[in-house]
Design a protein that fits this description.
The complex is a heterodimer of chains A (149) and B (275). Chain A has 149 residues and is of the alpha+beta class. Chain A has 5 helices and 5 strands; from the N terminus they run ββαβββαααα. In chain A, a hairpin with a 2-residue loop joins strand 1 and strand 2. Chain B folds into 3 domains: 47 residues, no CATH class; 109 residues, Uridine Diphospho-n-acetylenolpyruvylglucosamine Reductase, domain 3, CATH 3.30.465; 102 residues, CO dehydrogenase flavoprotein, C-terminal domain (Enolase-like, domain 1, 2-Layer Sandwich), CATH 3.30.390. In chain B, the strands form 3 sheets. Chain B has a 5-stranded antiparallel sheet with strand order 4-5-8-6-7. Chain B has a 4-stranded antiparallel sheet with strand order 9-10-11-12, sandwiched between helices. In chain B, helix 9 runs antiparallel to helix 11 and helix 11 packs antiparallel against helix 12. Classes of the chains: A alpha+beta (149), B alpha+beta (275).
Amino acid sequence: MKIRVTLNREIKEIEISPDDYLSEVLRANGCKSVKRGCDKSTCGACTVLVDDKPVLSCTYLAARVDGKTITTLEGEQEEAVKLGQLIVAEGGDQCGYCTPSLALTTIAMKRELISPTEAEIVHYITGNLCRCSGYVAQLKGIKKYMGVE
Amino acid sequence: MIKIKNWVSPKTIDEAYQIANEKINNRVLGGGAFLRLAHDLTIDTAVDLSLLGLDQISETERYFEIGAMTTLRQLETSQPLNNAFENIFKKSLENIVGVQLRHIATIGGTVFARYGFSDLITALMVLETSLVFHERGEVSLVEYLEMPRAHKRDKKDILIQIRVMKQPIKCSFQMLRNSSSDFAILNAAVSKVDRHYKIAIGSRPGVACYALEAMTVINDTASINQDDLERLKLMRSAVSGNLVFGTNRFGSQSYRKAMSEVLVKRAFMEVNHEN
């Protein structure tokens, strides 16, 4: 089957199988920021934005995105650089595997939450697990990005 | 491993119902999050409901009408719904995995499947909740949960709407998790309308059900005149009376049984706490 999507601001027609997950389709179409982590809806490494909402692409069937807008970190370079620099400055870059998904979730959070508290920030990013477990440094960078002291 | 041969997104419920029932292995999809839980599943035609406009929360004078395709995140962030039911939707949903999964999983998918681990079903049990099916019409949530599971060869019905009655209510949701975003080891909800209580326990690990003995004790007219502490003592010891608890990797039967009393006590105290 064919789906028509807006992928990182570009309209694309993509041939898929009805049982393809979005993560596989996006990686096959050059979006390597989308990581395969647990493949069990748990770790958040595959996070992408569908119509500006963060979803787990390992759990979202590609057939479902027909007609929708998909954003991966490749489509959010400017914000990714800003956030990335703040995380690196805090020493939170670590192995980097979870960073693209964490960045996308954070970008979505910034657009959704107005003046969040630290607890609200932590709660929003709970679905992004970091195998290096260096959450403290990441959180410091994210708080600066969100404008939260 | 799942295999889906065909995909359709019908424009009407009638069409969806017809396609769902054309073949045994045709399957209606809610949010589709369950597919990751399936080990080996072959679907002939997946019937996607996302074009049917079932993702809305609307209000009538008497009810909140929640479309079956409404995501858990929509429920969690709905101000009208949470204001009306003392944030029970938010509290029962906010710890389910992460915001990303809650943007996928739907109320219809959760309720229809009667998941034993569901936090949402436990919360809905203590509200006046009914389900509207395409074929069967309206049935109460409790009645649905007690129905035998449909056989593969039975007609497949489609859940369209979840209806929650508006009423002055006090309610509380409590749960126990090893860590945030994990499955609940146990959950409990208590509601109070006038002086009538409902108590539901879920993730036992079976699907939520009422703690009937405790409800009898607490709603008993004789005990209504006793003070709160006395009633609490009587009710606590009856909580696990009619309930069956089980053991899985999250917790043992005896742990769940002991903790059910604790969660109900906390919920009971919360609904009786005057702000």
